[in-house]
Amino acid sequence: MIKLTGENLNLEEMRSILFQNETINLDSNALTRVQKSREAVERIVREGKTVYGINTGFGKFSDVSINEVDVHALQLHLIRSHACGIGEPFEERVSRAMVVLRLNALLKGFSGIRVEVLERLAYMVNHSIHPVIPSQGSLGASGDLAPLSHLALVLVGEGFVWHEGKQIPAYEVWGNKGIEPLVLEAKEGLALINGTQAMTAQGVVNWLEAETLAYQSEWIAAMTMEALHGITDAFHPAVHQARGYVEQVDVARRMLKWLQGSQLVTTQGEKRVQDAYSLRCIPQIHGASWQVLGYVKEKLEIEMNAATDNPLIFEDGEVIISGGNFHGQPIAFAMDFLKLAVAELANVSERRIERLVNPQLNEGLPPFLSPQPGLQSGAMILQYAAASLVSENKTLAHPASVDSIPSSANQEDHVSMGTIGARHAGNMIQNARRVLAIEAFCALQGSEYRGKDKMSPLLQDKWNEYRAFVPSMDEDRIFSTDIERISVHMKNETASSIYTKKEAVSVQ
């Protein structure tokens, strides 16, 4: 069980919550802060003070005062009117992350929400009740209003949830459990929806999947090295220490580990003096992507523990400030940066695929790895598919954060588009995973032609692991099935199943 404090949630804990369905509990000191903040809101309501978000309208309506008798209706109208997300829902794992992150932010005690609401959010996490949240419709400031409104609807018994493998109405799941939906009090609707948790939740899932993919790209590239009689001198530690990037040094070290004991790789001058860049520069290219992952990790872990709603309540309610912590610019930049790192893992993978299948480049392997060149096309069109995915990623890599369209009658005149960036990064990770799945398919076949018994022991293990569900290419077949099997297997892996923490020095 992981304790949420609002202060120190990290990506490893999120991995456990999202991938191992770890449960959570709430820190008692944090709940004390929450209670004090709530008392301040109740005092403001009693005394009739005018404070944005408590007894005023929202956005351009911030100058409209709301009577105390209408405070409950104000919160319900807010989340209903703002629940205008559209498109396909976020995947369930992202929805779970969104609940956890919103809960963690509210535990900081700056939002004026009741402990009862936080306990209900924790119940949802621990009983796998995940809101169905449309993925489109957020500008990323004032936070992720539309997605988080769909989350908030579930608390009041509206909207839909995933539960036990089905999508069902929220009122039905509460009824089945004998629990009454909540009635939101003053400020609670705003506290629930004014934040960056949609982009950050998608960003967290993106990072965890991208980290695993970056590790997977190394053994796949190593197997390609074997299939092409690659030169290992380029991975000599002195080369990478001379440049000084720790991530580059780590990739080179891990590549040599994968290739240790291989009889298929070569040394300088044995077959040729040097390899093409897609082989020789693996530590430099992949290492640069690891540098991006390090930057993105830092920003995500700050945002995961940030107070991002408005207004914020300080000094037991004596100081209430309308600010702009809901603006998603830091995560928008981080997601756009992550897109570049993922794009390059796929770009260089596609170039290695081309070398594996091209008879002018593949060091004597059959043309297109075909078992009967001419009669059978082999992996010819797999390279086409990889090229298509890489090209699609190039269009998705356009930064979402450079765009801004004013909203709320120009009151909110600059927005981040961070959620669009996070969604596109997720799409690019899926595309990149399939490109690397194609490289894995071709590398498995190429190394088989060279002689499985000559592979390094570690790569023989990988060969056996994947051959258990992807047979050798002894004749043409519908290869899309094979690629999807590999892709699904890769998606279900975690970084820790590839390397121990001691082995995987990068981005710790």
Which key terms come to mind for this protein?
Fumarase C, Chain B, domain 1; 18 helices; 508 residues; Fumarase C, Chain A, domain 2; 2 domains; mainly alpha; 3-stranded antiparallel β-sheet
Task: Characterise this structure.
- The modification 2,3-didehydroalanine (Ser) is found at residue 142.
- It catalyses: L-histidine = trans-urocanate + NH4(+).
- GO terms for molecular function: histidine ammonia-lyase activity.
- The chain has 508 residues and is mostly helical.
- The protein has 18 helices and nine strands.
- The chain has two domains: 2-195, Orthogonal Bundle (Fumarase C, Chain B, domain 1); 203-313 and 321-404 and 413-497, Up-down Bundle (Fumarase C, Chain A, domain 2), CATH 1.20.200.10.
- The protein has a three-stranded antiparallel sheet. It has a two-stranded parallel ribbon with strand order 1-2. A two-stranded antiparallel ribbon has the order 3-5.
- It is elongated, with a radius of gyration of 26 Å.
- 54% of the residues lie in helices and 6% in strands.
- Helix 9 packs antiparallel against helix 13 (282-303), helix 13 (282-303) packs antiparallel against helix 14 (329-357) and helix 14 packs antiparallel against helix 15 (380-396).
Strands, helices and their partners?
Layout: E1 2-4, H1 11-19, E2 24-26, H2 28-47, H3 71-82, E3 86-89, H4 92-106, H5 115-126, E4 130-131, E5 134-136, H6 145-155, E6 160-163, E7 166-169, H7 170-176, H8 188-193, H9 197-227, H10 237-241, H11 246-259, H12 277-280, H13 282-303, E8 312-314, E9 319-321, H14 329-357, H15 380-396, H16 418-450, H17 457-467, H18 479-492
Parallel strand pairs: 1-2
Antiparallel strand pairs: 3-5, 4-6, 6-7, 8-9
Helix pairs in contact: 1-4, 3-6, 4-5, 4-9, 9-11, 9-13, 9-14, 9-16, 11-13, 13-14, 14-15, 14-16, 15-16, 16-18
